[in-house]
C-alpha cells in the first residue's frame, strides 16, 4: 500500500470540487484496508471511504484524515439454473457491471444503466432509477468490520435498505468497509418500462417488449437529453431526494399545487417530486449564480460550470432548501453527502 500526502480530491469526484486529503491511498485488497486503518489509528486521524466520487461534495479545505480510495476489482459470474449470481468488487465501476450483465443477456440491472459511481456505493446509497432500486437485485453485501477485524456477509434484511438509504449511511458509517457485493440476476425476465420516460420512449418507437440492450440504449438517450455531460461539467446528478411525506401532508400540499407530480410510497406515505417543486414552485430551473447553477433540463441537478467551490454549491443548495420550505413547507434533504471540516 502506498500512502500519499496532500492529494487533491477534486479529480476523484464527479463534481470536480474538493481540497486535498491529508493522506490518500488506493485500496486493492483487504490487507490494504487493514493497513490503512491501522495507519489512521496510529496517527489518530479519521478515515473516509471514497468510491467513484459521484455522490459527494468535498469541502474546499479537503479532508484532514486518511482517504481510502476503493479500487477493489473483479467480477465473478455463477449460474444456478435460470438464476445468475454476479459478485463484484466494491471498486468496480457500476456501469461496467451493468454493461456486462446486459451483454451476457441477463435481466435485473438494465434499468440502472449509465449511473456513475462504484459497486460498493450502489449498496451504500441503494441507487435507484427508472422504477428500479439496487436492493431488488442484491443477494448480500460483504463488509470489513474495522472495529472487530472481521469480514462478514450482510443479507438484505439486515441492510436497512430504504429510499437512497442503507445501514452504511448510519450505524456502520465509517466503521464498516464494503469489499464485495453479490447480485441475483435472471436468464429469463421481462422489461420494466412503467416509468413515464421509458413508457413514452418505447410507445414512440412501437416497441412492445424491449430487450435488455434496448432498455439500456433508451436510458442512454433519455439521460443524455436530461443530464449534463460529465466530460464538460461537474455535477453529482440529483442533489436532493424526492421528499416523502404522510398522506395528510400530501393532501395539504396538493390542495395548493394540484398539478404537482406525486407517487405512492407505500403505507401512509406519498413521494413528492423535488424537481417539480424546484422548477414549478421555486422557478429555479436553469438559473446560474457565478460558477454554479441548476441544470436547464433537470432542476434537481446542481452544476459546477467550472472553477466552482464547495461553498458556492452549498450556498445555492441552502437557498433552494430555504425557499422550498418557505413556499411549500416541504423539507428538501440532500442526496449528496458533504465531506470535510466545513461540512
From TrEMBL:
Keywords: Cell cycle, Cell division, Cell shape, Cell wall biogenesis/degradation, Cytoplasm, FAD, Flavoprotein, NADP, Oxidoreductase, Peptidoglycan synthesis
GO biological process, one term: cell division
Pfam families the UniProt entry points to: FAD_binding_4, MurB_C
GO cellular component, one term: cytosol
HAMAP family registered for this protein in UniProt: MurB
Organism classification: Bacteria, Candidatus Lloydiibacteriota
Top-level lineage group: Bacteria
Reaction(s) catalysed (UniProt annotation): UDP-N-acetyl-alpha-D-muramate + NADP(+) = UDP-N-acetyl-3-O-(1-carboxyvinyl)-alpha-D-glucosamine + NADPH + H(+)
Cited function: Cell wall formation.
GO molecular function annotation: FAD binding; UDP-N-acetylmuramate dehydrogenase activity
Keyword flag Aminoacyl-tRNA synthetase: no
Keyword NADP: yes
Active site, renumbered: 164, 238 (proton donor), 335
Cellular location(s): Cytoplasm
E.C. no: 1.3.1.98
Predominant subcellular localization, coarse grouping: cytoplasm
Alphabetized SUPFAM superfamilies for the sequence: FAD-binding/transporter-associated domain-like, Uridine diphospho-N-Acetylenolpyruvylglucosamine reductase, MurB, C-terminal domain
Pathway(s) it belongs to: Cell wall biogenesis; peptidoglycan biosynthesis
Class in the EC hierarchy, top level: oxidoreductase
Record protein name field: UDP-N-acetylenolpyruvoylglucosamine reductase
Organism: Candidatus Lloydbacteria bacterium RIFCSPLOWO2_01_FULL_50_20
Amino acid at each position: 500500500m502506498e500512502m500519499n500526502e496532500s492529494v487533491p480530491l477534486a479529480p476523484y469526484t464527479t463534481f470536480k470540487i474538493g481540497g486535498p486529503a491529508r493522506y490518500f491511498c488506493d485500496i486493492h485488497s483487504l490487507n490494504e484496508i487493514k493497513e490503512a486503518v491501522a495507519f489512521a489509528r496510529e496517527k489518530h486521524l479519521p478515515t473516509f471511504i471514497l468510491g467513484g466520487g459521484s455522490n459527494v461534495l468535498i469541502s474546499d479545505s479537503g479532508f484532514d484524515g486518511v482517504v481510502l480510495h476503493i479500487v477493489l476489482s473483479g467480477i465473478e459470474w455463477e449460474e444456478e439454473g435460470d438464476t445468475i449470481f454476479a459478485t463484484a468488487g466494491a471498486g468496480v465501476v457500476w456501469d461496467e457491471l451493468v454493461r456486462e450483465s446486459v451483454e451476457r443477456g441477463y435481466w435485473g440491472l438494465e434499468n440502472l444503466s449509465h449511473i456513475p459511481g462504484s459497486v460498493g456505493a450502489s449498496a451504500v446509497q441503494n441507487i435507484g432509477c427508472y422504477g428500479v432500486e439496487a436492493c431488488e437485485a442484491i443477494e448480500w453485501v460483504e463488509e470489513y468490520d474495522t472495529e472487530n477485524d472481521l469480514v462478514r456477509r450482510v443479507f438484505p434484511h439486515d441492510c436497512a435498505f430504504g429510499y437512497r438509504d442503507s445501514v452504511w449511511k448510519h450505524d456502520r458509517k465509517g466503521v464498516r468497509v464494503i469489499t464485495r457485493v453479490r447480485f441475483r440476476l435472471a436468464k429469463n425476465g421481462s422489461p420494466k418500462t412503467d416509468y413515464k420516460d421509458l413508457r413514452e420512449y418505447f410507445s414512440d418507437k412501437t416497441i412492445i417488449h424491449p430487450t435488455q440492450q434496448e432498455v439500456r440504449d433508451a436510458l442512454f438517450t433519455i439521460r443524455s437529453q436530461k443530464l449534463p455531460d460529465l466530460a464538460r461539467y461537474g455535477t453529482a446528478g440529483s442533489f436532493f431526494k424526492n421528499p416523502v411525506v404522510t398522506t395528510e401532508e400530501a393532501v395539504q400540499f396538493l390542495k395548493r399545487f394540484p398539478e404537482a407530480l406525486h407517487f405512492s410510497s407505500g403505507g401512509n406515505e406519498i413521494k413528492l417530486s423535488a424537481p417539480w417543486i424546484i422548477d414549478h414552485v421555486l422557478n429555479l430551473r436553469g438559473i446560474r449564480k457565478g460558477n454554479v447553477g441548476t441544470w436547464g433540463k433537470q432542476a434537481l441537478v446542481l452544476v459546477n460550470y467550472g472553477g466552482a467551490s464547495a461553498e458556492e454549491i452549498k450556498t445555492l443548495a441552502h437557498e433552494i432548501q430555504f425557499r422550498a420550505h418557505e413556499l411549500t413547507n416541504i423539507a428538501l434533504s440532500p442526496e449528496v453527502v458533504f465531506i470535510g471540516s466545513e461540512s
